[in-house]
DNA sequence: ACACGTGTTATGCG
DNA sequence: TCGCATAACACGTG
C-alpha cells in the first residue's frame, strides 16, 4: 500500500495524535523489522522521552524526540501506523476501538503489530505490518534519498529525471533520483501525462518533463486528499480486460523497471 | 496449489 | 565505476 501519499497521511496522524506523549515502554522484539538493532536497543533509547516532530521524505518517516534519539519508520509494502488514544478516552486495539491513524480497526490486528511505543497515558503508537517488510530504526540514513517527489522544483526534476537513457517509469521509481513514487503512483502519473512508461528519458524534451512533473504533483495531491494511491483514476483499470477511462482503448500490461506496468494502448505514446 | 504483489537491497552483468 | 535488471526477502491473498 504505502507510497508517498499514504506515508504523508501516517506522518500527519503521528503529528496530530502522538507528539508530546511520554513513552513508558517499547516493544522492539521483532529484530527482523527493527534490524540492524538488537532487541531492547530501541527501547533503551526511547523510554522516558516524547516524540516532538514528525517528518517525511519520500516514503521514509522519522520522529525527533526531546532527547538525542531519532526514530525512523518505513512502512515497506504492507505497513500502517496505528495510534491509539489515551486509555481513559476509551477505545483500545483489542476492542477494535477508535483509531487515530491509518489502520485496520478490527480485532486480531495484534498478531501483526511489529513495533509498539506504549505511552504513559495507556495509549500507543504501533506499526502494523503483515509482511514484515517495514523497518524501524534509530537515526535513519536519508543520504541515499533524492528530493521529495512532492517538493522537487522544476529545474531539479528536469536534470535528475531527464539524465541517462532508462525507461521513464524506471526513473520515476528510483528513490535516489526522487523519493516517494511507487508502482501505482508511477502508472497513474504516466497515464495522466499520456506518456508510454517504456519511453527512455532521453526522448523526453523539457516540455515533456515539465508536464510529467505537473501530473506527478497533481496525482500525488489528489491521492493524499482522496485517501491513497489506490483511488487514482486509472488504478481500477489495471487488470486484464481493463479499458482506459478516458478513451476506452484496451489497457496494456508489461514489465517496466522490474514492476508490473499498465498503460493505455492508444493514448500513452 | 500456485502465482502475485502498493518496497528495498544485494548481486551480477555489460 | 556507473547504470540497469533481477533475485531475494516475508507472508497474506486471490
Automatic annotation (TrEMBL):
<feature type="domain" description="Formamidopyrimidine-DNA glycosylase catalytic">
    <location>
        <begin position="2"/>
        <end position="134"/>
    </location>
</feature>
<dbReference type="InterPro" id="IPR035937">
    <property type="entry name" value="FPG_N"/>
</dbReference>
<keyword id="KW-0238">DNA-binding</keyword>
<keyword id="KW-0227">DNA damage</keyword>
<dbReference type="GO" id="GO:0006284">
    <property type="term" value="P:base-excision repair"/>
</dbReference>
<keyword id="KW-0234">DNA repair</keyword>
<protein>
    <submittedName>
        <fullName>Formamidopyrimidine-DNA glycosylase</fullName>
    </submittedName>
</protein>
<dbReference type="GO" id="GO:0008270">
    <property type="term" value="F:zinc ion binding"/>
</dbReference>
<dbReference type="InterPro" id="IPR010979">
    <property type="entry name" value="Ribosomal_uS13-like_H2TH"/>
</dbReference>
<keyword id="KW-0378">Hydrolase</keyword>
<dbReference type="InterPro" id="IPR012319">
    <property type="entry name" value="FPG_cat"/>
</dbReference>
<dbReference type="GO" id="GO:0003906">
    <property type="term" value="F:DNA-(apurinic or apyrimidinic site) endonuclease activity"/>
</dbReference>
<keyword id="KW-0456">Lyase</keyword>
<keyword id="KW-0326">Glycosidase</keyword>
<dbReference type="Pfam" id="PF06831">
    <property type="entry name" value="H2TH"/>
</dbReference>
<dbReference type="Pfam" id="PF01149">
    <property type="entry name" value="Fapy_DNA_glyco"/>
</dbReference>
<keyword id="KW-0511">Multifunctional enzyme</keyword>
<dbReference type="GO" id="GO:0008534">
    <property type="term" value="F:oxidized purine nucleobase lesion DNA N-glycosylase activity"/>
</dbReference>
<dbReference type="GO" id="GO:0016829">
    <property type="term" value="F:lyase activity"/>
</dbReference>
<dbReference type="InterPro" id="IPR015886">
    <property type="entry name" value="H2TH_FPG"/>
</dbReference>
<dbReference type="GO" id="GO:0003684">
    <property type="term" value="F:damaged DNA binding"/>
</dbReference>
<comment type="similarity">
    <text>Belongs to the FPG family.</text>
</comment>
Amino acid at each position: 500500500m504505502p507510497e508517498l501519499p499514504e506515508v504523508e497521511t501516517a506522518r500527519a496522524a503521528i503529528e496530530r495524535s502522538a507528539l508530546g506523549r511520554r513513552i513508558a515502554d517499547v516493544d522492539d522484539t521483532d529484530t527482523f523489522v527493527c534490524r540492524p538493532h538488537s532487541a531492547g536497543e530501541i527501547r533503551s533509547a526511547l523510554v522516558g522521552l516524547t516524540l516532538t516532530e514528525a517528518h517525511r521524505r519520500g516514503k521514509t518517516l522519522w520522529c525527533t524526540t526531546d532527547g538525542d534519539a531519532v526514530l525512523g519508520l518505513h512502512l515497506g509494502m504492507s505497513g500502517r501506523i496505528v495510534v491509539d488514544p489515551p486509555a481513559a478516552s476509551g477505545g483500545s486495539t483489542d476492542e477494535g476501538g477508535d483509531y487515530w491513524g491509518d489502520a485496520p480497526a478490527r480485532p486480531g490486528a495484534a498478531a501483526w503489530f511489529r513495533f509498539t511505543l506504549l505511552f504513559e497515558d495507556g495509549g500507543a503508537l504501533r506499526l502494523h505490518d503483515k509482511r514484515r517488510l517495514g523497518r524501524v530504526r534509530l537515526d535513519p540514513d536519508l543520504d541515499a534519498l533524492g528530493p521529495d517527489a512532492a517538493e522537487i522544483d522544476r529545474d531539479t526534476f528536469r536534470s535528475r529525471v531527464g539524465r541517462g537513457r532508462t525507461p521513464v517509469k524506471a526513473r520515476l521509481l528510483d528513490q535516489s533520483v526522487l523519493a516517494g513514487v511507487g508502482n501505482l503512483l508511477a502508472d497513474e502519473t504516466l497515464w495522466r501525462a499520456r506518456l508510454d512508461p517504456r519511453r527512455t528519458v532521453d526522448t523526453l524534451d523539457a516540455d515533456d518533463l515539465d508536464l510529467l512533473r505537473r501530473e506527478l504533483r497533481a496525482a500525488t495531491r489528489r491521492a493524499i486528499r482522496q485517501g491513497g494511491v489506490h483511488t487514482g483514476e486509472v488504478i481500477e483499470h489495471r487488470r486484464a480486460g481493463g479499458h482506459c477511462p478516458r478513451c476506452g482503448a484496451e489497457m496494456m500490461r508489461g514489465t517496466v523497471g522490474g514492476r508490473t506496468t499498465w498503460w493505455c494502448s492508444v493514448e500513452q505514446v
